[in-house]
Amino acid sequence: MKHFEEKYEKSVKIAEGTYGVVYVGKITETEQPIVIKKVKYYNNRDWTYEDAIQEVVFLKTLGDHENIVKMYDNYVDASTQNIYLVFEFVSLTLKQYMNKYTIERAKTKNFMKQILQGLEYCHSKMIMHRDLKPENILVSKDGTVKICDFGLSKEAGEKKKHTTEVCTMWYRPIEALLGCAYYTYSLDIWSAGCIFAEMLRIGIPIFPGDSEIDQIYMIFRTFGTPDEDEWPGVTSLPDYKKHFPKWPKIISEKLLKTNKETNGLLLKMLVCNPAHRITASESLDHEYFSCDNN
């Protein structure tokens, strides 16, 4: 740790929880600002500690990409086993940005394109983020958008069984809410669609449920209660209930008060059946990004 403490200087604590502390600091030699995340060690089966190790592995796999946060360094304190992750400093999260500024339509398009570019890259490396939300997207002073916090990330695979306790609830896709443990990249696309809608709604989340059942019902009221014709196998999912209200499909091109290209992309991202959801690569080719109409 002596080498770490000589190389990096912690200055201001910006977040603290049960499992760790986040500081703003600097590289001692150059005074370049950085973020240092300290993850406390409790035991080798502690999930938060495992998440930190996992985050290091995935960030090393992802390497250098403009729309992924850069990890400069990582250390393990031999005496405490605490993990220290060193990241580039970016001043605002997308959530903070939306609270501070009004995002006009052109900027929404620019930010969304960068989010999808980051996701496309992650997915090309077989990595699902699994916790995409405005708090886990950074916005630099020059408008560069970077996906961060890969602690819940996993390698994708159609036959792999995963936990459904992923994504903050407002951004959790319906398949996870219904208990589907076999999911893939489409999970991130739903979350990205919720973020897209939130930017279009000037910072107001599209599905702000106060419980899992409320979250499910909000989605069903918007898109209709899915059935076997629309989504084969949905009624067999662990948390699908026969007594769910049967809301009709009232969704239209007027999901939000915007143009058809914008709604067209949004409706392809927010599809209940994950098999019918657009991919990150397909999203980037959508007419929304090529049309002049913001």
Give short descriptive properties of this protein:
Phosphorylase Kinase, domain 1, 294 residues, globular, three-stranded antiparallel beta sheet, five-stranded antiparallel beta sheet, Transferase(Phosphotransferase), domain 1, single chain, alpha+beta
Briefly note the structural class of the backbone: alpha+beta
Total DSSP E strands: 10
Strand order of the largest sheet: 1-2-3-5-4
C-alpha termini separation: 51 Å
Q: How many independent structural domains?
A: 2
Radius of gyration: 20 Å
Within CATH, the superfamily of the largest domain carries the name Transferase(Phosphotransferase) domain 1
CATH architectural arrangement of the largest domain: Orthogonal Bundle
Strand content: 15-25%
What is the helix/strand order?
HEEEHEEEHHEEEEHHHHH
Q: Return the CATH topology of the largest domain.
A: Transferase(Phosphotransferase), domain 1
- Provide mean pLDDT, rounded: 90
- Net shape: globular
CATH class term of the largest domain: Mainly Alpha
The portion of residues assigned to helices is: 25-40%
Main beta sheet: strand number and arrangement?
A: 5 strands, antiparallel
- Catalogue the unreliable spans: none
- The count of helical stretches stands at 9
